[in-house]
Write a structure and sequence with these properties.
This protein is α+β, with helices and mostly antiparallel strands and 312 residues long. It contains six helices and 13 strands. Helix 2 runs antiparallel to helix 3.
Length: 312
């Protein structure tokens, strides 16, 4: 290799080295945009049919608590991120103006700041949680001029039984309620613990064998809302979903009359059949409630035992 070849090779190498940071920067910028779009899409997708899209007073109050808690935490998180980047940039190796102090070890002002701010954050978060947990206590009745609708909920394996004791009807995997009317739930379980949850109405609560829990919810807008079991309860857990339909009081009364006209009786034999493990069961209605099994289930007077083969 002669001198000219060496000179050309040197310039090409330097040119490639200068172009490399630019290429890396463009690739990083492209990836950053892609990640930003994916994050934004995920956030928007999560807002539909979830706790961030409430359709009742309890859900709205819980969203306020969530936003308040997030804002309080961001008051710390955002400045920390900004200061981290600012310190990293200021104390970079090439900054000759940054003062190097190897013997510095303590500052009372800094200690006061780094301990006071987290203490205030914990105080504010605790206050928000304390007040919200008492205002939204599940058994606490909702303020309304209308008498609440009574619904008894029995979690089966693996479906939901809804009993309307005053209307003397029952449904499986389908819950119909009137809009603007508080709904007072009493919940129990035939076997393992399940968590009753309608994300857009708020306040999930456990249904447990041998005891009764209470929940008060209200749907302010007509619509169809998904309900789930938020507690793993066996091989049919993923199919343990139900539909909550909120409609006007007039349409609710018409629906009750229609269920009565369809017939079907929920008696001891019918409940015994429902209590057997069933995966992927559909919606059912019972126009007559011959025997309300809720209290007997809640007090453990109904035996619900099966073999491991039946539970598969």
């Amino acid at each position: 290799m002669n001198a000219n070849d060496a000179h050309n090779l040197f310039h090409r190498t330097n040119s490639n080295a200068r172009r490399t940071p630019g290429i890396v920067a463009r690739v990083a910028h492209t990836w950053a945009r892609a990640v930003g779009v994916l994050c934004a899409g995920s956030l928007l997708a999560s807002c539909r049919e979830g706790v961030l899209d409430p359709r009742g007073p309890v859900g709205h109050a819980e969203r306020v608590i969530l936003f308040d808690a997030t804002t309080i935490m961001l008051i710390v998180v955002v400045p920390v991120i900004i200061l981290t980047l600012a310190f990293a940039w200021w104390f970079r190796a090439g900054n000759r103006r940054a003062t190097y102090r190897p013997d510095w070890e303590y500052s009372g002002t800094i200690e006061l700041i780094v301990w006071t701010i987290p203490a205030l954050v914990i105080l504010f978060l605790g206050g928000v949680g304390w007040i919200g947990s008492h205002e939204l206590d599940p058994p606490k009745p909702l303020t309304s001029n209308v008498a609440p609708l009574e619904v008894e909920v029995v979690s089966l394996d693996w479906r939901w039984l809804f009993i309307y004791p005053h209307e003397r009807i029952a449904t499986v995997n389908r819950l119909v309620v009137p809009t603007g009317v508080p709904v007072h739930f009493r919940l129990t379980s035939t076997s393992v613990m399940n968590s009753f949850f309608v994300p857009q109405l708020g306040s999930q609560i456990y249904a447990m064998a041998g005891m009764t829990t209470q929940l008060n919810l209200q749907a302010d807008q007509a619509g169809t809302y998904p309900g789930i079991s938020a507690q793993f309860s066996g091989p049919g857990f993923s199919d343990m979903r139900f539909t909550l339909v909120a409609d006007s009081s007039e349409n609710f009364a018409s629906w009750v009359a229609d269920v009565h006209s369809r017939g079907g009786v929920l008696d001891s034999a019918g409940f015994a059949e429902l209590a057997r493990p069933t995966r992927g069961g559909g919606e059912l209605t019972y126009g007559t409630l011959a025997d309300d099994p809720f209290d007997r289930v809640a007090h453990g007077h109904i035996a619900t035992q099966w073999s491991p083969q039946e539970a598969l």
